[in-house]
Amino acid sequence: MARVFSGIQPSGELHIGNYLGAVQRWVALQSQYQCFICIVDYHAITQDYDVSMLETRTLDMATSLLAAGIDPERTVLFVQSHVLEHTELAWVFTSVTPIGELERMTQFKDKSQRQESVLAGLLSYPVLQAADVLLYKADTVPVGEDQVQHVELMREIARKWNARYGDGFFPEPQALVGEAKRIVGLDGQAKMSKSLGNTIGLLDQPEVIWQRLRPAMTDPARVTRNDPGTPEICNIYHLHQHFSPKKTVEEVAHKCRTAGWGCLDCKRVLADNIANAFKPIRQRAAELKKRPEQVREILAAGAAKAREVAQETMRGVRERMGLLPARTEAVVDR
Ligand code: TYM
Hints:
mainly alpha
């Protein structure tokens, strides 16, 4: 059975961007594939973060994922730092990864530009990402567009390691990118992202969704209500395509072109459809939030399953690299 791996940062609750771009597909894939989904807390520390909130954000992300339909009976859901082999394999991979490859990563260039002093962790971020996937010898990596370059690099890392230490040991994983590969935020410009504050949260109440959507950017040509617009350039129209029935989408396009609706009318319909789409997820999340211990247990069980595979891979890696075997395997009780 093909093996799927994907990861998500512990940024708290899900938003429409990471849900449509990734999580929705993870939920669909779990019936056909053996899936590993990892909350990547060691990736999150490569940029400034609130130490006092990391634990809560990690749990909230797990809660969101479970509410969104990740089924712990079918998917191995776990936290990256609970499986020590991730950082171990990342170290191994630093010794086959040229710095030049890391420096040309778009995400590194973007993020490092915003910082006075660039941390080594930010540069080696994709090496840890390669370790995440290859530790499970996963061949399929469902991600949004922004992660495709990182998946290409992990293919190269697998190739380089295989060439030096063990032909065919690691597969070369493929990115799986869906239609919703880049959901634009409410500013109508940048990728929807929590750090840019341009999101609608999956668990937002209907009134909050409306408050967030109301000031959102639309086609700038629609200065007054009577100015006709071009739906294709409006992010609100694109969001309708994900949340509204086909008939409504056609109506939106027509009423935008003919100024039959104002932008607020169009947003009102969208707000209602988003709120309805996520109602069952909101309800499940509210239930799970009453039982945080259960979420912790799911994560512990997931880490135990992940560890079995990870330890097996690392044994093979150490052996092929000629390391002296330890007499006793380190016993890690977490
Ligand atoms: P992260 O946490 O930024 O995002 C999680 C997933 O959601 C996708 N995504 C989006 N897709 C479309 N439109 C958007 N606005 C949007 N925002 C987020 C991302 O492409 C991603 O698939 N480095 C990764 C996490 C990671 C990982 C891995 C992924 C760590 N190890 C191994 C795959 C395999 C990240 O920061 O994702």
